[in-house]
Amino acid sequence: MIRAYMFLLRPTARQAVALGEMLRDHCSLYNGALQERRDAYRHTSKTTVRYGGQSAQLKEIRAFDPERQGRWSFSSQQATLRRLDRAFQAFFCRVKAGLTPGYPRFKGAGHFDTVTFPKDGDGCRWDSTPHDRVTRVRLQGVGHIRVHQHRPVKGRVKTISIKREGSRWYVVLSCDDVPTEELPPTGASVGIDMGTTHFLTTSDGEHVASPRVLTAMADELAEAQRHLTMFPRRTRQRTKRHRAAARRVARLHAKIRRRRADFHHKTACALVRDFDVIAHERLNTAGMTRAPKARPDPDNDGAFLPNGAAAKAGLNRSILDAGWAQFLKILANKAESAGRLTIPVDARNTSRTCPSCGHVAKENRITQAKFQCTACGFTANADHVGATNVLNRAGLVLCHVA
To answer: Are 162 and 114 in contact (CB under 8 A)?
Structure first.
């Protein structure tokens, strides 16, 4: 298996400055390569510049600017150019598919936050044998940085990435040949129904409360954002007070993100530990949270009819606050590591289908929480019914595969 490990770095003040300079110089390389591609297309008969040609220029660039580009790893700079090349490949794929293209943009200093080293030992080395019970990672141009390694690394370290989140620095190790650690079988299966009132409901009737992390910190976040908007637009990014206000907003968002991820990991661990087979709905979160289209008023030019955007915005906020997509991804990864099985099933009408007689009707779901079949009179909690139907559909999938 391939797994990623993410550890917090403990750099000294001098090392933190060097890490910031590393990001700045790689960002400059990225933007320069993007500008070269734009100029070549516009002014040289639409000539296409590719990764191979730009990578061949690195030797000259490093010799011309040894202070900013020559001090860093050659392989990490190649990885930055590959990152730009992948952005253009994705752009052309979207053009061919008829989607919104989204042309690659220049990266600001605060938006370029990752540098990748494609191979352990080439500009970056992971110290697998810690000295004095302290693990370190060595970076070319920075030195040996202490790592807060909270769990053992298994498998072979393949690539190493340095990432900045706010004022924190992390090292991300991508490892292959990671052995599975299968848990003893329990002989139990479960279906889960995702929701906003309850984060999830199992087919056993258990409700897991939603953490509502964003709602809990909404007042504090709103206050920080109001303080940020107090600065006039002409003075933004120019004063220390504005930068401090922006950092405060970023810290709150990072705190919300960490709390949500912690809840997802703990909930997924509990499910993987207790059940051999976990069935869940196949959810298109991006489509579910898409804003409704505008409805032009045919009688009034330039006017629009109500489209329920305000009500939909509240539902979208609740779905995104729950983080269904992230949770299901974490659940799938943990299940694979533990030798468990996850089965995604079609989510249509799971809360409108009677598990007793199979009757499907919109009227079966009286309220958000109550289900009553109009054909046989079966009554139960609507989320429990949805989880039961999810488990039943997973059983049909297993029978079909067998």
So the answer is: yes
Closest CA to 26 of 114, 138, 144: 114
Alpha carbons 198 and 206: distance in angstroms, whole number:
10
Task: Return the SS3 of 146.
Answer: strand
Residue 102: strand, helix, or coil: coil
> Which residues, in sequence order, are CB contacts of 118 under 8 Å at separation 6+?
75, 76, 78, 79, 159
Token digits of residue 285:
């979160």
Q: Give CA–CA dist 292/59, Å, rounded.
A: 51
Q: What is the pLDDT of residue 266?
A: 96
Q: How far apart are CA 96 and CA 144, in angstroms?
A: 46
Contacts of 58 (CB under 8 A, 6+ apart): 74, 77, 78, 81
Average pLDDT, the chain: 90
333-366 confidence digits (pLDDT tens): 999 999 999 999 999 999 999 998 989 999 999 8
Characterize 82-107 residue by residue with b for buried, 16 or more Cβ atoms within 10 angstroms of its Cβ, and e for exposed.
Answer: ebbbeebeeeeeeeeeeeeeeebeeb
> Maximum CA pair distance of the chain?
80
Q: In 198-276, which ranges are E strands? A: 198-202, 207-209
β-bridge mates for residue 175, sequence order: 3, 157
pTM (predicted TM-score): 0.86
Q: Are 191 and 168 in contact (CB under 8 A)?
A: no
Other C-beta atoms closer than 10 Å to the C-beta of 64 total 11
More confident of the two residues 307 and 360: 360
Helix (H) or strand (E) holding 249: helix 240-274
